[in-house]
């Protein structure tokens, strides 16, 4: 078990992954690696029929830990890219139903907890976005491929090139969120939906999901094996750390 999240058995084959890295579930290589290990374990556990991803913090996730990232060297940059690619591709490919409870913001890397899941429920305070351009960073190959597959072209254009988020209602209208509910019933509604998904035939569900996402996953995995997702110069450029500092304030 990682200090960055808790695993809860809700019964009925439903497992809840509760993100708990205070204050905003900021992503680090260690956090991402622990998530990858969790996804590997649930993928082969026949007793688990559905997974809920939720947050015990005030938001779902603010993405990369920008304070830490300002001190990254080239090795650190490549390590976080590897973690982002690996973790979110494994979530996207997970052969089990995944339901995301989006409380508050899911920004930049944190948005991929949403895009990686099969069903997404937000509260009225939810917001989603791809802020990478505002912090001087490009999208790694895995998250980029997932975003292209899951977002309509115009939403991809707006979110990626502006770096500005969508509100809960905008995300609902765009099909990014499937439901928007009051925060007080967010978890109850998420569990209710997980129960519906958990009742589906598991082998068939896994096969259908692979049909739907397999081409994207295979392409990302090939790129990762060929190191096409990184460059020898690192992930950041000369604009990145000043942009991160400005974002943090």
Write a brief structural summary.
The protein has one domain (5-186): Alpha-Beta Complex (2-enoyl-CoA Hydratase, Chain A, domain 1).
What does this structure look like?
The protein is an alpha/beta fold. The chain has a single domain (5-186), classed as 2-enoyl-CoA Hydratase, Chain A, domain 1 (Alpha-Beta Complex). Helix content is 47%, strand content 16%. The chain is built from ten helices and nine strands. The chain has helices at residues 29-43, 66-69, 74-93, 112-115, 141-150, 153-162, 168-173, 183-198, 202-225, 240-248, and strands at residues 5-11, 14-19, 50-55, 98-102, 105-107, 119-123, 127-129, 166-167, 179-181. The strands form two sheets. A six-stranded mixed β-sheet has the order 1-2-3-4-6-9. The chain has a three-stranded mixed β-sheet with strand order 5-7-8. Helix 1 links the parallel strand 2 (14-19) and strand 3. Helix 1 packs parallel to helix 3, helix 3 (74-93) runs parallel beside helix 5 (141-150) and helix 3 packs antiparallel against helix 9 (202-225). The longest helix is centred in the C-terminal third of the chain and has 24 residues, at 202-225. The radius of gyration is 17 Å and the shape is globular. The mean pLDDT is 95.
Quick tags:
single chain, six-stranded mixed beta sheet, 10 helices, 9 strands, 2-enoyl-CoA Hydratase, Chain A, domain 1, 249 residues, globular, alpha/beta, three-stranded mixed beta sheet
CATH superfamily: 2-enoyl-CoA Hydratase, Chain A, domain 1
| Mean pLDDT across all amino acids | 95
Helices, by number, come to 10
- Percentage beta strand: 15-25%
Structural shape: globular
The top level CATH class name: Alpha Beta
């Amino acid at each position: 078990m990682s200090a960055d999240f808790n695993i809860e058995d809700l019964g009925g084959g439903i497992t809840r992954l509760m993100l708990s890295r205070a204050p905003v579930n900021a992503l680090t290589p260690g956090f991402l690696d622990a998530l990858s290990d969790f996804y590997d374990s649930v993928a082969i556990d026949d007793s688990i029929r559905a997974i809920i991803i939720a947050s015990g913090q005030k938001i779902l996730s603010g993405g990369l830990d920008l304070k830490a990232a300002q001190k990254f060297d080239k090795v650190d940059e490549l390590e976080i890219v590897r973690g982002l690619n690996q973790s979110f591709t494994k979530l996207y490919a997970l052969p089990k139903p995944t339901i995301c409870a989006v409380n508050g913001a899911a920004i930049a890397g944190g948005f991929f907890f949403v895009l990686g899941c099969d069903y997404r429920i937000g509260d009225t305070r939810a917001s989603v976005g791809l802020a990478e351009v505002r912090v001087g960073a490009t999208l790694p190959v895995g998250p980029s491929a997932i975003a292209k597959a899951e977002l309509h072209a115009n939403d991809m254009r707006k979110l990626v090139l502006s770096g500005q988020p969508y509100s809960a209602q905008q995300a609902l209208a765009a099909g990014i969120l499937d439901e928007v509910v009051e925060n007080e019933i967010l978890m109850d509604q998420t569990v209710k939906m997980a129960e519906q998904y958990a009742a589906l035939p598991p082998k068939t569900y896994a096969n259908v999901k692979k049909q739907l996402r397999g081409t994207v996953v295979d392409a990302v995995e090939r790129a990762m094996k060929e190191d096409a997702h990184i460059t020898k110069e690192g992930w950041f450029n000369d604009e990145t750390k000043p942009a991160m500092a400005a974002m943090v304030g």
